[in-house]
Amino acid sequence: MEGGGGAPPEVLEENESGCVPPARLGANGLKSSSWGFLFTGIVGGTLVAVYAVATPFLTPALRKICLPFVPATPKQIENVVKMLHCRTGSLVDIGSGDGRVVIAAAKAGFRAVGYELNPWLVWYSRYRAWREGVQDSTKFYISDLWKVTFSQYSNVVIFGVPQMMLQLEEKLARELKDDARVIACRFPFPRWTPDHITGEGVDTVWAYDVNTVRSKRPEDPCVSSRSWSCRHY
Predict the structure, then answer these.
(1) Can you say whether the dihedral through the CA atoms of 11, 16, 17, 19 is positive or negative?
(2) Is 55 a residue whose pLDDT tops 60?
(3) Residues 6+ apart with CB under 8 A from 190
(4) If I label 129, which of 12, 29, 49, 81 is the partner at 20 to 30 A Cα–Cα?
(5) What is the DSSP letter of 69?
(6) Residues with Cβ < 8 Å from 224, sequence gap 6 or more?
């Protein structure tokens, strides 16, 4: 034990051979573990964010009647506004999407409301209305259209799909007042006879006056034959 406090020969041999002391191994292991937790957290957070954003868009596809979000074209909006000419009262867009129809109606002087099931689209619609300066005359609600009563609205706009039109036709016939007008875009109602038609192809818009629907007026051959030249705006 001469030399007082020198390392034992076997320890010196281990150090000289390049072996890493246990303390250093522990530090490296802790560092690797920290990076692993960080990576896992980032991946997990990303997946949660994607799920939160994508779910409202994908959920409608799982419903019995799917009403997907397909933005209205400028021509469709123009035709809707044309059908609102000389109309008054409140307006509702059923399945309002990103709010462009509601905003256009507000700019035309209506107090307009949109119902939409997708919360991201509702929040975006509110932002767009604020950006366009019509936030005071528009409202957007997160709601299922089948759980809403539309009796308080004088003008109803719907961008529907064929699977829902018959059921919606029956619901609106029960709820709306006689002076109300229903404007259908892309697809007409199966049993109602439109009072006015404008546009062509995917931009076609059909207008139905509820008092006409209820009176069961004999079909106008001009309309029933879909000859747009008779009542084309």
Answers:
(1) positive
(2) no
(3) 165, 166, 169
(4) 49
(5) -
(6) 193
Query: What amino acid is encoded at 100 in this protein?
Result: R
Which of 41, 77, 54, 114 has the alpha carbon at shortest distance from 203? 77
CA dihedral sign, ordered 48, 119, 79, 212: positive
The per-residue DSSP string of 2-33 comes to TTSSPPPHHHHHHHHTTPPPHHHHHHHHHHHH
pTM above 0.70, yes or no: no
Contacts of 118 (CB under 8 A, 6+ apart): 56, 57, 60, 69, 142
Phi, psi at 184, each rounded to 5°? -105, 135
Contact 207, 182 (CB under 8 A): yes
Other Cβ atoms within 10 Å of 69 Cβ, number: 17
Say whether pLDDT at 4 is over 60.
no
